[in-house]
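Continuing from the previous page...

OK, I double-checked the sequence for MFS transporter against my notes and this is the correct one:
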Amino acid sequence: MTSSALGRDFRLLWSAAVSSRFGDALRTPALALLAATVTRDPRIIAAITVAGQLPPLLFGLLGGVYADRWDRRRTMALVDGVRAAVVAALAVTIALNRVSVAVLLVTAFLLAALGTLFDSASFALLPALVPLDALPRANGRLQAGAAVAGGFLGAPAAGVLFAVAPALPFAVDALTFAAAALFVLALAPTPVAGANSRPAVRRGSVWSEIAEGLRWLRAHRTLWRVTLLAAASNLAISGIMAVLVLYALDVLRVPPAGYGLFAAAAIVGGVAGALGASRLAARLGTVRALRAVLAVETVALAGFALARDPVPGGFALAVFAAGTVVWNSLCASYGQRHVPAGLLGRVGAAQRMVGLLTAPVGAALAGLAAAAYGTVPVAGAAAGTFALVTLAAWRALRPAAAGVLNATGAA
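Thanks. Re-ran it with the corrected sequence; updated structure tokens here:
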């Protein structure tokens, strides 16, 4: 899934991303299993989940500031080194039978907080490693590699390793973080300034730099509209994911033993979408492709809401997942092409912040609606939301206004 045309540094970054994603896929389910061995109180288990979701909202913009201030390559390596130490300490704690709820809460929060800085630096570093016209391809390869490592390799292995020894998946995760840090350190040093940079300015306070990133995002008409559309889409995506298992079991009549295979349809679709994102951008141009992807997702989600059998439901889920990954790849590429290099960390963090704000709202609304009316109306509402988003996108994302001069994927 890598490509020699993208260069040595991209292969190193790809290897780091895949290694880290494999470890994440081991740790996430293992942490849930571990929490269930410590307590059966659903409130505490939910609190551990929330502890891993809060840092991007609390520190995401701050991570963007330091991703623009510091050397991004060294920042990523340092973060992965610290994460390796944190997870290794957790593995030792488990092996010594000293794990507690407090340990799990602190670990989940700390890893997620470190991840906000890593994500901002990684997003901002990629344009310095590959040609700008190769960004859709590079982002697609990164997402495809992460999907395979996480969905096909890491997630199935997590339960097996945990059954052998509860500390084992965390020990392996620590090794993957250490390997990722070494891959990143092997990258050639890259300055923050780049082809789309602006003249250097005197640094202000952290808050003034955060405000600068937010102002730039708000002033860029197309990127701001893409960000709002992504937030609206996430409202529906989070809602459908919150009730997916119930919908699959109760409405599509997926056997419990076959749920893993059903869920794998989304992974297959995601890989296909990641590998095809650059071709779609090359054929239509990025902005036109974004509009088309939303239309396809709307049709797929409507088909999912109408399906009453595992096969058509799984196919619709795969198409929807493919569209989601294409959207994410192309959005990232568009921002990386148009945002000044010195602002990439802050603008990327601001985009993620806006998108994340709607996710808990969508999940909460879906849970309440499913409890009151069942899961079928939730799927229908998600499809309706996507239809509205698609209509808005076809009006708001006009290639001419976005500066699209041709269909080469340049805009």
